[in-house]
Specification:
The structure is a homodimer.
Chain A: H1 16-29, H2 42-49, H3 53-65, E1 69-72, E2 76-79, H4 84-91, E3 105-115, H5 118-124, E4 131-141, E5 144-154, H6 155-158, H7 174-181, E6 187-196, H8 199-205, E7 212-221, E8 227-236, E9 242-246
Antiparallel strand pairs in A: 1-2, 3-4, 4-5, 5-8, 6-7, 7-8
Helix pairs in contact in A: 1-3, 2-3
Chain A binds a DNA duplex through helix 3.
Chain lengths: 247, 247
DNA sequence: TAGTGGTCTAGACCACTCC
DNA sequence: GAGTGGTCTAGACCACTAA
């Protein structure tokens, strides 16, 4: 294995396993290994960093705990692609869950270049009035509206999306962010609430005005925890379950 | 240190650190050490279980990760008391959050001895029709109804609660469980949904029938993950926020 | 100073995967 | 059979806490 670039100045006061962890995550962020690709074996990493295998294991342990890597006995350790598709189905439960798991069909209702409102700018840690890309999107299963989304992105980082016809966006946005904007969503913070649906949203969701809808506000973050996207989703409460463990 | 009781039949096929973990969490659940109390040192535990210190560390690591124990360098390892009061305020947000944090006042509306319904029995891993203790409780802030709760407990473990006048219950139940039933809630699983409020619940919550309410189903667990309590809470959606991090 | 957890080593053997 | 991660050992030294 070639010598590992210690890209950032590594503080010698930090524990070794911590320095190994930083070195590995820096290399992952720099795409030395693509998602789904195996990183070198624990023995190789230990030799490269001149530490014992136990120290490497501790570094990898913490990256696995943070969902950055995945281990498979006998196969290797792999860069994990955060699977928001499956998380979608972890959080949403539908009346007819017997059949195969399906991604809802997405329909972009609107795409515009605008400026950040105060609330969105705060969530994305940008200036109020900064240039923004905004999407309105409807997600359906069996032609039945399921989720209505209002999505805000910083213009500079995502302007490449303007070049694509919205009818060719496909059903998932995060793969597009990766492909066209070189940006990978690594985690997200969500805030749930509920409200009586407005007349306008009721029309789009095929509900009666006043029926309860769940509202989810999501800030999507990169691996180094920079906010990338703000999104607000609304769906009929009757179709919705959300599970959490408190400790 | 006295020999540790290996209370449950421990499967010798399991990894040793796993067996040590099970033994420790069983003892915590059995109140061998009270919350905020130090457990024996890693060296002592290693000797008692005849494993190396590294194996003990791995067992304790996982209990710390699960929020059951807390470590302090130079001081020891302590049984953690989950702070459900503060978690209540992490999850709920009220219109007037400027003032000091307050626990809602609790009013027990009803206490009865009954039998487990199918759904509750399944959640608590008991037989349908097993004896149950059931409470209906309303929680208020400034005389304003905030949460309506339906609480189910296994009769045997909690029958001591029948001896206390419900007007003397106080505003939090988990301290009562600890004091009178020798049971500590260590974690909980919650499922969120929303619905249009029924006429009956609307009356109790001072809402108009049909307004959206959040529904939280909670199963409270002991340190060794035995289900202790099932509870369903309903509150006006307008008063409610819930925050989660996805990875 | 004695005792605690925090870090680290340099091996060992096992279970699993793939060829 | 070769290579991987999973478990485990029996120590070591360090940093921190409390008496």
């Amino acid at each position: 294995m070639s010598p590992l670039p210690t890209s950032t100045k590594l503080d010698h006061r930090l524990p070794r396993y911590h320095r190994v962890r930083e070195a590995l995550s820096a290399e992952i962020a720099a795409w030395r290994w693509k998602p789904e690709e195996a990183i070198p074996s624990e023995t190789e990493i230990a030799e490269a960093h001149r530490v014992s295998i136990g120290t490497v294991r501790k570094a990898i342990d913490s990256l696995v705990a943070d969902g950055v890597l995945e281990r498979f006995q006998g196969k290797g350790t792999f860069v994990r692609r955060p699977d928001f598709q499956s998380s979608f189905f972890r959080f949403f439960r539908f009346a007819n869950v017997d059949g195969p798991v399906r991604v809802p069909v997405s329909r972009i209702l609107k795409r515009e270049v605008t400026t950040m409102s105060a609330a969105v700018a705060a969530a994305l840690k940008l200036e109020v009035g900064a240039a923004a890309l905004r999407f309105s999107r409807l997600r359906l299963i069996d032609e039945r509206p399921l989720v209505l989304e209002d999505i805000w992105l910083p213009y500079e980082r995502f302007k490449a999306l303007l070049a694509i016809d919205t009818r060719e966006f496909g059903d998932l946005l995060y793969p597009l962010y990766e492909q066209y904007c070189g940006v990978m969503v690594a985690s997200a913070q969500e805030t749930l609430s509920a409200e009586a649906v407005s007349a306008k949203n009721a029309r789009l969701l095929a509900l009666v005005a006043g029926e309860p809808v769940i509202v989810i506000e999501r800030v999507a973050l990169s691996a180094d925890r920079q906010p990338l996207e703000w999104r607000q989703s609304r769906g009929p409460a009757s179709e919705f379950r959300y599970q959490v463990e408190i400790r």
